[in-house]
Write a structure and sequence with these properties.
This protein is of the alpha+beta class. The protein has 12 helices and 17 strands. The strands form 4 sheets. Strands 1-9-6-11-5-4-2-3 form an 8-stranded antiparallel sheet. Strand 14 and strand 15 form a beta hairpin.
């Protein structure tokens, strides 16, 4: 069994004992860690219009906990106080490929559960305030020292500070406190209150995981039911009793509706995999423009053109701004990309993984893929829609 960051736990033991259950402090999860990005480079990314970033100042002339969304400017940074502020930049794993190695040890958790790598910088006393997150997160200290305070239990429906753009807890009672040095990492399950305060200039890598909300999942299923022309059964009441008040909606009506919805979900069962796959691979709004840059203006390539380009020493690279997933359902294989479901009959698992999981397809991969005509046709389609793009092998 694979060890979990030299903790004495296996990966499965971590999942059984801590995942979505309780926090875990891991000393030197990444020994001798050095950040692949500097504070100045992070600030430069925050000035890019296509990159999602935020600047939070705890106290300013405009009031407490001021939030500014990027793109930021040199003037914004020049006006900052000496302390009590934090810069946060999302999706660093996509913008700075050198940081992707940080995510490799987390591959025992499904990729579609992973959101992004967020990197923050804060000078002394920098913080975003005590808060909760609705998702799992690993907080890796990348530079400097940060103090983390964490509540004893997850918090739900707790009061927040009024009249600010951030969800800062109005009351915060920590039960545990640690100082994290570079290489140390803290795991937090959803909804645990936490407050990180920079002791000196520091950077933190946040590896965040996501999961769809109930309303999002229901919306995805309903959309697929409508597209398939299903779920047309009307509310019915063959057990209706004579009523005294004809405008009243009684409890029996509510129970009938509940059963109708249960029947609808049962009817939708064959669609659930596709609904989930499309939902989980939808492109983040903040990454749409960057993802679209890989779309080709050319016609869909032919298998012969693919073979020629591989023969010429080119490789295919997966679009880092799009989400991919794959699944098998009986004889049908699914490749999910950017909220779409591409189905293929009798496709080997190896080919599904190649199309949706690998970051590069080279000539050797092509020789395997070329044995399946449907898989090749799907690759041609994915290239035309921006999922894969060409690059010379010596540049990859």
């Amino acid at each position: 069994m694979t060890d979990f960051f030299n903790t004495g736990l296996t990966q499965q033991q971590f999942l059984d004992q801590y995942w979505q259950k309780k926090p875990l402090l891991i000393r030197q999860a990444f020994p001798d860690f050095e950040s692949a990005i500097s504070p100045d480079e992070l600030a430069g990314l925050a000035c890019e219009p296509e990159i999602e970033s935020r600047l939070i100042i705890e106290n300013s002339d405009a009031g407490p906990w001021q939030l500014t969304h990027g793109p930021l400017s040199a003037e914004d940074f020049a006006a900052l106080p000496d302390s009590h502020w934090t810069l946060l930049v999302q999706d660093i794993d996509k913008h700075v490929p050198e940081t992707q190695a940080i995510l490799a040890p987390f591959q025992f958790i499904p990729n579609w559960r992973r959101d992004d790598l967020m990197v923050s910088f804060a000078p002394k006393h920098g913080s975003v305030g005590p808060h909760t997150d609705g998702y799992d997160v690993f907080l890796l200290q990348a530079m400097g020292t940060r103090q983390w305070q964490v509540t004893a239990e997850p918090l739900h429906d707790v009061p927040l500070l009024d009249d600010i753009d951030l969800q800062v807890l109005a009351e915060f009672e920590p039960a545990q406190q640690w100082l994290l040095e570079p290489g140390d990492m803290l795991y937090l399950p959803p909804h645990y209150g936490h407050h990180g305060i920079a002791i000196d200039d520091c950077m933190t890598y946040s590896i965040g995981f996501r999961a769809p909300k109930q309303a999002e999942a229901l919306d995805a299923v309903v959309n697929d039911l409508l597209e398939q022309g299903l779920a047309k059964q009307h509310y019915s009441d063959p057990d209706l009793q004579a009523v005294q008040h004809d405008h009243e909606i009684d409890q029996q009506a509510v129970l009938r509706l509940k059963q109708l919805l249960r029947d609808t979900i049962n009817q939708a069962e064959p669609l659930l995999l596709a609904s989930l796959g499309k939902l989980l691979t939808e492109t983040k709004l903040s990454l749409t423009n960057l993802a679209d840059e890989q779309f080709s203006d050319d016609d869909e390539p032919t298998p012969e053109q693919l073979a020629e380009q591989f023969q010429n020493g080119e490789v295919l690279l997966r679009n880092p701004y799009l989400r991919f997933a794959w699944a098998q359902q009986g004889p049908v294989g699914h490749v999910f990309m950017a909220g779409e479901d591409y189905q293929i009959e009798d496709c080997q698992k190896q080919n599904l993984m190649m199309l949706a999981e690998q970051t590069e397809i080279n000539q050797a991969d092509w020789q395997q893929l070329a044995k399946n005509t449907q898989a090749v046709d799907l690759l041609c389609q994915l290239i035309a829609e921006g999922g894969w793009f060409w690059q010379m092998a010596d540049q990859s």
